[in-house]
Amino acid sequence: MDTPTITACCDPLVEAALDEDEAVQLAAAFKVLADPVRLRLLSLVANAEGGEACGCDLTEPVGRSQPTVSHHLSILTEAGLLEREQRGRWAWYRARPEAIAVLRDALEV
Amino acid sequence: MDTPTITACCDPLVEAALDEDEAVQLAAAFKVLADPVRLRLLSLVANAEGGEACGCDLTEPVGRSQPTVSHHLSILTEAGLLEREQRGRWAWYRARPEAIAVLRDALEV
DNA sequence: CCCGCACATCGACGCCTGTCGATACCTTGG
DNA sequence: CCAAGGTATCGACAGGCGTCGATGTGCGGG
Q1: Closest CA to C5 C1' — which residue?
Q2: pTM
Q3: Which pLDDT does position A1 carry in this prediction?
């Protein structure tokens, strides 16, 4: 999907008109959240006990194939919404509230 | 794009895991924001003097054709992010902060 | 050392969506 | 009543993206 890391790029939508570049950057960030599987993965990880979840426990609950889940986890990680830690042959994920906050702040009213 | 009106559907992402339906609904809402032209249109309207903007003044700043702008304004309006009022042959738009707030709340940390 | 498992990558397929030109609709001004 | 301009709709096209099966990669256990 070609998604650079989510970083604060602009004032809230309703407080200043976006220029072209800001709009492209923000849209790319929201695009990461514009998929039901990614939203579920993000919420599953954020709500896992200990604040972290093993990739091996994420395939079944979202009802998609392993390659598809891996693909979505990559997109979330590249965007900075998740961070990945490899432990042996398992990948562990934690949510990154800072990245979520960037998007929330853009929607401040 | 087939986007029902944005309405509060679920607790914040990081406070409760989304079920399938909630995820589909939230993703559809974020999809509306996942386009640079729509983000610019929304911010242009929200920042217009008087809080409202005429459609005739929105085509040029976003650099797209009139049918394309009309299409995006329809999507924003159907989603409830904009409201439209027809005055004579002009369409006037206002932002709906309530709809924006629904999405912001879903990203609460 | 080899097998098994978690995970990533690849290639292919189908659908969705952003875009435009052409055109139809509708309201106002003359 | 006609002409003009703002807007919506239509049809078509191209590119993007989610999905999967098959396969590659790397680590750990026996």
Answers
A1: A89
A2: 0.96
A3: 85
